[in-house]
Amino acid sequence: MACGMPPYSRCVKWRFGCEHYWKLLFFFFYLNHLVSGHIRYSIPEEMKKGSLIGNVAQDLGLDLKRLRSGRARIVTGDSIQNTELKTDKGILVVKERIDREQLCGDVTPCSFSFEVILENPMELHPVKVMIQDQNDNPPQVLYPVQTGGSLVAEMVPRSADVGYLVTKVVAVDVDSGQNAWLSYKLQKATDRALFEVGLQNGEIRTIRQVTDKDAVKQRLTVIVEDNGQPSRSATVIVNVAVADSFPEVLSEFTDFTQDKEYNDNLTFYLVLALAVVSFLFITCLVVIISVKIYRWRQSRVMYHSNLPVIPYYPPRYSDTLGTGTLQHVYNYEVCRTTDSRKSDCKFGIAGSQNVLIMDPSSTGTMQRIQSEKSILDEPDSPLEVS
């Protein structure tokens, strides 16, 4: 646009446009002056808190004194900061553990950006951090659905030919790149000669003609692996019914489920009952042996006591010299031990008279001589029955 001598109204508009243009040009020049450096880092996901990302001061050519005097800090548009700037060392570290799937989802490549800002003079240094995917997630099986209570079976008619498509295992991996590449393998099967699994697509097909001799209940175990290092896997159970009618399939698999649950419960209860019976038997045996030992020891103490015999003398006892308190002296001795069955009572003779005498002139008869008043008639007699 040439600057000639336009009319007054057009000249005012021209001047206003020129001034606005120069202001924008000056702003972009100033902004370009502020943004003096741009750095990029690439780190793996799931790094621990405090792990080193990079040396910002060295990569931007800044002095540590400049970082401290300029009050260097990180500015980001997000409310969550994944990194932290250590101004005393000039390094950038991980502030919180970074999960790529949580940060970016299915978006690849995954990255986040922020600015390192300094003051006096003002400087902006954009920083971009790329997140490398790690194989931290196993494959997830979408079909067939693995249910705990019900039993789902795929039906194959007995007229099925070679290559008949039974079902397809569908799985996904939330990782990215080669970590999300999945492969399918048949791990176990009731009849491995009847089915095969596609390595890349997970399709289960027959590899021979189905015959009447094939069992109705077929159980396949398919393992799904990813291509990560180390590899992660998931296992899926596929139940296949070889039958021509649905009622036949229903009866067979219902019986199969009930028999399995019954056998599992029966085994558990048998083991539990065996443990309880064994415990009770051992407990009773220990109690019986303990009681027998206790009684045997008690009998040994009662019958074989080694305690000394202590003679017992009751009140008003008179010695053999006739110096006691009884008018007619009568001696007796009581011997007691800890065993009452071995205690004994020994009766003696009167101290002043002979109770029994022998008459030499008689032919073997004995005469009993009693005193004028029998010792048994005395109220204080030791033989008086109370």
The DSSP helix count reads 5
Q: What is the end-to-end distance?
A: 155 Å
Largest pleated sheet: 4 strands, mixed
Percentage of residues assigned to helices: 25-40%
- The fraction of residues assigned to DSSP E strands is 25-35%
CA radius of gyration: 55 Å
The tally of strands reads 21
Structural class: alpha+beta
Flag low-confidence runs.
1-16, 21-35, 326-330, 346-377, 381-386
Major β-sheet strand ordering? 1-7-6-3
Please write the string of helix (H) and strand (E) elements: HEEHHEEEHEEEEEEEEEEEHEEEEE
Tertiary shape: flat
Could you tell me the mean pLDDT? Answer: 75
Protein model, in words:
There is one protein chain. Helix content is 26%, strand content 29%. The strands form seven sheets. A four-stranded mixed beta sheet has the order 1-7-6-3. Strands 9-16-15-12 form a four-stranded mixed beta sheet, covered by helices on one side. A hairpin with a 7-residue loop joins β20 and β21 (366-368). The protein is flat, with a radius of gyration of 55 Å. The termini are far apart. With 386 residues, it is of the alpha+beta class.
